[in-house]
Design a protein that fits this description.
The protein is elongated, with a radius of gyration of 47 Å. By secondary structure, the chain is of the alpha+beta class. The protein is built from 4 helices and 10 strands; from the N terminus they run H-H-H-E-E-E-E-E-E-E-E-E-E-H. Strands 1, 2, 4, 5, 6, 7, 9 and 10 form an 8-stranded antiparallel β-sheet that branches. It has a domain of 121 residues: Distorted Sandwich (Glucose Permease (Domain IIA)). Helices cover 27% and strands 24% of the residues.
Length: 248
């Protein structure tokens, strides 16, 4: 009996020592804690979803705003504003010098007359200026018809527009029209028009007396006038004489 009592006491002692260790080893994985959390009863933990990933920061998603970059941006904006102002001033100056503010209210939109050939300006609205043609013309093969800025310019005859340009060599704003008149190949040139007044485009068919633009002083010009040229079968003719013989 004494031996049984001794073995019973030893068994009880072993059980008392082993049970806490077994309890500690069976702690659920979800209850794992850091040393800091163990040391603090009410410690808080951060839970992060497993799907969360680190998003890379793209350069285009933010703007650097260092003092140097701010000053550079201000300088660029000021330069752009100055350039725009200069362009606007140049356009206004050009419009003023070439007859801006066109008013054709006193003129018909179609040249008077009913003939196959018409005068390119309203009769009585111009004065005859310099006329030079041929080898001694110095490159001025045509007639200068002096008129106020904005005076309408008409197609001298029906035809097809070959050139319509805001910058046609020294002619400035100009239109060239090809015609067939009396079985002959004829071309007429209308130069130094006011910017933005062309009424026709290359390839367009026009009628005799149709308005095609307005008098100005663009290109190689020093005063408002229409430089008018007439070419028949490739040869340059004196425009005033040609008009006098054909226009009606």
């Amino acid at each position: 009996m004494r031996s049984i009592a001794i073995f019973g006491a030893v068994g009880a002692l072993v059980a008392a020592v082993a049970l806490p260790a077994y309890a500690a080893s069976s702690t659920p994985v979800d209850a794992a804690a850091t040393l800091q959390q163990v040391a603090q009863d009410d410690a808080q933990s951060l839970v992060v979803a497993s799907e969360a990933t680190a998003a890379p920061l793209q350069r285009s998603t933010y703007t650097a705003t260092t003092p140097a970059e701010i000053e550079q941006k201000k300088a660029e904006e000021a330069a752009a504003a100055a350039a725009a102002a200069a362009i606007a001033a140049q356009a206004a100056s050009t419009s003023s010098s070439s007859g801006g503010g066109i008013d054709i209210g006193n003129y018909a939109l179609v040249s008077p007359g009913s003939g196959e050939v018409r005068y390119p300006l309203p009769r009585g609205s111009y004065r005859e200026g310099r006329t030079t043609v041929g080898p001694d013309s110095g490159g001025h093969d045509g007639a200068d018809m002096l008129a106020a800025a904005g005076t309408p310019i008409y197609a001298a005859a029906a035809g097809v527009v070959r050139v319509s340009s805001e910058s046609y060599y020294g002619y400035g704003v100009a239109v060239v029209i090809d015609h067939v008149i009396g079985g002959q190949s004829v071309s007429t040139t209308y130069a130094h028009m006011t910017y933005g007044t062309r009424q026709v485009q290359a390839g367009q068919t026009v009628q005799a007396g149709q308005m095609i633009g307005a008098v100005g002083s663009t290109g190689s010009s020093t005063a408002n006038h229409l430089h008018f040229e007439v070419h028949v079968n490739g040869s340059i003719l004196e425009p005033y004489a040609w008009l006098a013989a054909n226009a009606g």
